[in-house]
Amino acid sequence: MSRRAIAQFIFALTVALVPLADALSAESRILHIGNAGEPETLDPHRYNLRLEETLLNDLFMGLTTFDAQGRLVPGAARSWGTSDDGLTWTFHLRDDLSWSDGQPLTADDFVYAFRRLQDPATAASLAYFMYMLDNAPDVNAGRAPLTALGVSSDGPHTLILKLSRPYPYLLERLLYPTAFPVPRHAIEEHGDLWIKPENWVSNGAYVLADWQPQAHVHLRANPHFHTEVAISEVQYHPVVNEQGGYNRFRNGELHAIGSFPVGELDHVREQYPDELRMSDLLSMMYLVFNTSAPPFDDVRIREALSRAIDQRVLTDKVLRSGNKPAFSFAPALIDSYNAVELAHASEPFPDRIERARSLMQEAGYGADKPLNITLRHVAGLEGKKVNLAIAGMWKQIGVNTQLHQADLRNHFADLRQGNFEVAWAGWVGENNAEHYLTLLQSDIGNVNYGRFALNEYDRLIDQAQSEASLEKRNQLLNAAESVVVHHHAVVPLYTTAVRRLVSSDIEGWYENPRDMHQVRYLSWGR
Amino acid sequence: MNPQLPHLKSSTILPIAAGTLCLVILLAVIGPAFSEWGAEDMDWNAMETPPSLQHWFGTDVVGRDLFVRTMHGARVSLTVALIAISVAVLIGVPWGLVAGYMGGRTDQLMMRIVDGLYALPVVLIVILLVVLFGRNQYLLFAALGALFWLDLARIVRGQTLQVRQSAFIEAARGLGASIPYILAKHVLPNILGPTLVYVTLAIPGIILAESFISFLGLGIQEPDTSWGVLVADGVQTLETSPWLILFPGIFLAVTVWSCNTLGDRLRDRLDRRHQV
Amino acid sequence: MTRYLLKRLTFSLITLFAVITVVFFLLRIAPGGPFDGERQLPPEIEANLKAAYNLDEPLYRQFALYLGRLVTGDLGPSFRQKDFDVNELVSRGLPVSTALGISALLLAVLAGMAVGTLAGLHPGKPLDVWLMSLSNLNLAIPTIVAGPVLILIFAVFLRWVPAGGSGTFTHFVLPVIALALPYVAAVARLIRGGIVSAGSEPHVTTARAKGLSPGRIVGFHMLPTASIPLISFLGPAAAGLLTGSVVVEQIFDLPGIGRYFVQGALARDYTLVMGVVVVYSTAILLFNFLADVAYGLVDPRIRAL
């Protein structure tokens, strides 16, 4: 072979290999996402945290699911219907469903999954998410057999859910991993070890390839998913501190992060205008009073403290990160519901303070007898800023505030035990007012942290819950909410703003009020 | 010649270190009086602003004056250090005294306990305690004190052993003096020096340990503050508001440096006296 | 010698048992349980969870169960990391922490020796003054400040190394430096003192008189003598490095067991915290035991026992 021929061969080889190399690198290019922390489990029935939902939405698909904009769309079910009394729901499954190992996925798999969730042996902490199913609480407590649960199949493609009382938000509740199918064949073969990567089977766009605790969870595209995905490899990294995640984003190590330090916002706006993704999260941050003990059983004190808080100062001067001030307990973002605002929301601030002072005096507190309060909050910069500022505002009406911070878990443990005076709390709920307002029902249990109890309120909520019509339901909820506003059980503060940074290498990322982003909708851009 | 640190004449550096320390303490005590701001006052119009005539060290994330807070933090940090070291002295000195004086099985048992505790990840246990039982200032003092008494017990025991074998103790015992009397009259004065040195060197350790615990969010509670809390908070805004880490950081570093230097010098002097 | 070592070994085991007992009961008497999530648990479900983890048994039975498993090397399931047992977690985290700790110790000893020797050879000279002042300053800067500053300079601005996470060798560069810094200063001080006093020792003077090169004198005659105090320093230093690694792993998002400890303690993951404490204590006790062995070999008085 002449030298020229060799050169030509090498050239040809290079030309051939370059696209191949390109393809390879595109193939093996990994999307790195910063997640809010380390998942505790990837078993959809044992999960607890929002940061696990993120991953589970990539790994599994329920009857309903989200589109790229976070809207509810058909998932494993292609259509559904409900009976007139709202108690029976029929779901028609897609006929091309299969598990990631190629096994067909049928309605019986869903029946198995719904039963497994309620099985006492599963010990699912969120089993109550599906308590609207007929007999669910009894099955979960072991008082009734699994077969008594209100779920059945009619052939491989039809699933029937029976409820004990109307629940118009069922389609939305089915978005949660508690309603995801799980692979019966894999669980029966491997037991508790089915969640290990080597045994893993799921029905979502991705499967679990590897999990290095505290380092990353690696997902790979599921070849048996009904559509193709553009990004085939994803790694979720637990990012515990915001500064660390922000540094890794700037250094090109992470493509997307969930938040960055509040103080960096102005800098980010300048430096990363295309990468910055701000959106309002469907949520409520609020202060809760322990109404079961003095002095907070006195509505005058609660009103005075509520009036002295200027929500706009909190969001615009203290937080300065795009949070929206809130004046109602049910977030203003909720669809087809008009939230009831605090009566003093529109009064000028000096008048509010004036009235607050006189209320304090009426209740027997003044310069000679100041009110001393301990305000509890979750550790972290946001909690610290907000609650310090509130303490400063209360000082104006002669209230001395001591702060007590604790990490998230211990904070809410204290709240549930009623071990607090006033506390900062938050709720990321569904797109309906009920999910918020029921938090103040006297018999809801210990999520009613302040032990607020009012017969009138309970009656209105109960009436709403037996109502199948959404419109009537909302009217009753509205009436209930005005009772809350009148009694100042809580002080709404603001709706959280999500501050994400998403690399401009990625296309198909849309902000949405649930802040849910399935990787299958994303692709590599330029 | 003293081999430890001969590079600067001890006569010049000792007053510098001691003077700096006194200045820090003085500032901590009277400093806040010079400012119109209180430690908890918020300036709603000056959130996270850099140093200015109005706020000499700038303001923190909720508009509180950093100068006043740094001074306030100095009080807390130094108080924490003093209380913690007192705890250490109150446990460590008697422990070492008794062990060293009694000797034999008692000594062995007592020092075995010290050895055992040495082998523990003590800071981890402090973290565990604070996490489990909440942020309690007394718990923090006690835990930090418990960190430092072990060294002290060893030092005091060593000194006591030496003193015990000397002729005058034998004589005192021969004359029928009681054990507590001998310990108080003859042994205690001899261990004062080394104890003082150790205390001076341990204070920086306590201040740093407190910053470590504050970094994990387990230290002093707001609106109270300490250098550890200020530094741990300041690190979070390193880029946007560097003054929040700079000022408390300088105070912390200078104090730690002064104590270390002071301790070194005192030890040198003590060693020399012993050699003479 | 054998009797001495046996005694030390027995003592180490007693200590370990005491630690396990104390931590076990501390965790159980603390307020709040491992299943206090953000959402409320109905009583039936809480009962199911507790039964699954033996938490419904009497305390002494739980302790016996735990010890029984521990003897066979089983650290139990993790309460929080439900998909892993503690053995899996520790076996993944321990190599990271060990690599971090040993590299930092090596760096501290090597850099400290270099700085200490340089300073000790020129006592009182400007080089000495500068080096030692720098070390002293170093001792006054907390790791929680040094770490973020290193990240800012070398990762965010210069982009030489990653800002956090794990996976490659480069991920370890900054954490190792941050962890080693205070110990570099401590080692330098020790070595410097040794070098200065070794300078006037007879065998060094003899070596000089024989006309050996300065390099040989330092390497073969001065450093070995000056390094003896290091042995007794290494025990506490190892314990200190372990503790320091907790914060360093936190700052640099390194998946070591120190991070598990903090996360586990905050989440009341009883078994994970216990597992980390057991591993840490065993490591420290082992290290101290080895130091004892080394001492026994060096010190004839102990060898005679």
List keywords for this structure.
heterotrimer; B: 276 residues; mainly alpha; MetI-like fold; 9 helices; 72% helix; elongated; disordered N terminus; C: 305 residues
Largest sheet features of chain B? none
CATH architecture of chain B: Orthogonal Bundle
List the secondary-structure elements of chain B in sequence, H or E.
Answer: HHHHHHHHH
Anisotropy-based shape of chain C: globular
- Determine and state the CATH class of chain B: Mainly Alpha
Question: Could you report the average pLDDT of chain B, rounded to the nearest whole number?
Answer: 80
Which radius of gyration of chain B do the C-alpha atoms yield?
Answer: 22 Å
- CATH architecture group name of the domain at 94-303 in chain C: Orthogonal Bundle
What portion of the residues of chain B fall into strands of 2 or more residues? under 5%
State the separation between the terminal residues of chain B, measured CA to CA: 12 Å
CATH homology group of the domain at 94-303 in chain C = MetI-like
Supply the number of helical segments of chain C: 12
Which two chains touch over the largest interface?
A-C, 53 and 50 residues
Count every beta strand of chain B, where a strand is a DSSP E run of 2 or more residues: 0
CATH superfamily of chain B: MetI-like
The chain-level structural class of chain C is mainly alpha
Q: What's the quaternary structure here?
A: heterotrimer
CATH fold naming of chain B: MetI-like fold
- At the first level of CATH, the class of the domain at 94-303 in chain C is Mainly Alpha
Total number of helices of chain B: 9
Kindly report how far apart the N and C termini of chain C lie. Answer: 5 Å
